[in-house]
Write a structure and sequence with these properties.
Elements: H1 4-7, H2 14-28, H3 34-51, H4 58-71, H5 75-88, H6 90-108, H7 112-127, H8 134-145, H9 149-157
Helix pairs in contact: 2-3, 2-5, 2-6, 2-7, 3-5, 4-5, 5-6, 7-8, 8-9
Length: 158
């Protein structure tokens, strides 16, 4: 099982934490049913708009996130909440929400290796070293999956 601390990091750009949270919720979509699936899709859309730089109504999003969390009695809604909360509470809670989304996606049934690859992708983006070739990006991602973020930084720095 994924541990929240495994996915926690100090994100340089909170939009990357939001992207990771939304990605985790998207990975868990096959495990969602009915209204929860609709809520997840809506939350993912809001989070992805935030990542793209679009303006969002954080008060409305916060209310929706609270409603989803209040009704949550299982993993799928919690992942939805995490993705939405990351967008709503950017400065204070994005890193926690991203880690929670990974944890709950795992609990919903998403394979841990899929979460690890997603985490590596968003972490490489968060390291923000500009344009790098695909081979270097993949090597840095592999280093992150192996738990060596310093090696990933060195690879990306060139």
């Amino acid at each position: 099982m994924a541990q929240q601390s495994k996915w926690k990091r100090k994100w340089a750009d909170h939009r990357n934490a939001v992207g990771f949270a939304a990605g985790c919720a998207r990975l868990a979509l096959p495990f969602y049913r009915g209204d929860r699936r609709s809520d997840a899709v809506a939350a993912i859309e809001v989070a992805e708009k935030y990542v793209a730089g679009d303006q969002i109504d954080t008060i409305g999003v916060a209310d929706a996130a609270y409603d989803v969390a209040y009704d949550a009695d299982d993993a799928d809604a919690a992942a939805t909440y995490a993705a939405t909360a990351a967008a709503a509470y950017v400065a204070a809670r994005a890193a926690y929400a991203a880690a929670a989304a990974a944890y709950w996606a795992d609990k919903a049934g998403v394979d841990n290796s899929e979460i690890a690859v997603l985490y590596a992708r968003w972490t490489v983006r968060d390291l923000g070293c500009g344009k790098v070739d695909e081979q270097t990006r993949q090597a840095a991602g592999a280093a992150i999956i192996a738990g060596d973020e310093n090696l990933a930084k060195e690879l990306l720095a060139g």
